[in-house]
Amino acid sequence: MMNKRRWLLSLLPILLGLIGVGVWGSQQLGQGAQQVTPKTIKVQQAASKIKSATKKQTTTKPKVKPGQLTEAQAIKQIDQLIKSHHIMGTLLLTTNGPAGVRVRTYGYADDANQVRNTATEAYPLASLQKAVTGVMVQKLINQGKLSLTTKLSHFYPEIPYANQITIRELLDHRSGIRMTEITPKTILPTETARLNFTLQHLRSTNNHAYAYSNANFTLLAGVIRKVTHKSYQAALTNDIIRPLGLKHTYEYNDIPGNVINPTSYRLANGFGQSGIISKPLQSSELGCGSLYMSVGDYYKFMYGLQSGQLVGEAGLKSLADNFQIKYSAGVYYQAGQLIRVGGNDNNFHSYYMGSRNAKVALVLFENQGVFGGDNQVAYKIRDILLKTVPF
After folding, report:
1. Contacts with 40 (C-beta within 8 Å, 6 or more apart), sequence order
2. In this predicted model, what pLDDT tens digit does every residue of 220-272 receive, in sequence order?
3. Contact of 361 with 302, CB cutoff 8 Å
4. Residue 9 CB burial class (10 angstroms; 0-12, 13-18, ≥19)
5. Of the candidates 205, 143, 140, 195, which has an alpha carbon nearest to the alpha carbon of residue 169?
6. Class of domain 71-386
7. Which of 112, 158, 264, 358 could form a disulfide with 306 if both were Cys (CB 3.0 to 4.6 A apart)?
8. What are the respective helix, strand and coil percentages of the chain, to the nearest 5?
9. Do 219 and 319 contact (CB within 8 A), yes or no?
10. How many whole angstroms separate alpha carbon 338 and alpha carbon 323?
11. pTM for this one?
12. Helix-then-strand count for the chain, H and E
């Protein structure tokens, strides 16, 4: 019996040792399982931080790179240019399409009564209207009612060489039509009277070299009337004003009484002298200079054209004659994916310049300035905007 007890006592340490090892092992295994979970949590936290950082990057304004300008720096330079050239008018700027539009005003619409120019007032478009007429023509082409090769003789057979003049040539001032700017003795009261005035005074030469003439676009306005069986103004409303939601676009003789109608000032030796606006002349410019618009409305139009909204991508390519570097349908297509449009009438000057996609653009409507000199000012403003970060 004693031997049996001794044997059991000798086994007891061994058993206790084995139990201890088992407990220690289970503790170690438990600790290993617990270590996995914190690592998983850390990975999830890191992923959530990455997502958060990505969201912040999308809303962060682009950094200004060497050689670029901030919005404030750009506007300061532009304001100095305008001031140094004694320009009065309204200027629209953007470096980011419609989202980045800024409008600045300078000087007076009526200096004698101290009425300042405003952001929404309408100015004479002058030749900037030619691009509008071009879009109306392209819409008819898109609808299959007209083509770029349609001959003028289909509408005006009485014009000499009309059977050798195409719609494309009228759009590009290569029709052989010539007409100096003649001011009627009185206002031409109807669109028919305006067309007849042009038909009576134009010359058809059969020389199809480029020669700028308002008569080309008045004839296109006549074509629009004949194809649509509507007035030019009614077609304009249906094709452009209503679809784009334009709020400040008027015919020269239909400007509401509560809308600021600016006076033009001729700049001489740094001083402005008020000029007389010839309503008879404006009445004769159907399709090429009879409209008034705000800078905002004209930008909406140009963005609608260049984005394809108005005539589609194929229609734009057709109208722009494959974007060759030349004048096409009211717009000068330039190297470097740039465009320009300019107008000058009754001492009012109008300019549109920018990138072909209209993301970078300026619209400058002046009621005081010098057309040739301020054309260079507009180029300088464009160059400033091209090196400015999107705003």
Report:
1. none
2. 999 999 999 999 999 999 999 999 999 999 999 999 999 999 999 987 776 77
3. yes
4. exposed
5. 205
6. alpha beta
7. 358
8. 45, 20, 35
9. no
10. 10
11. 0.83
12. 12, 16
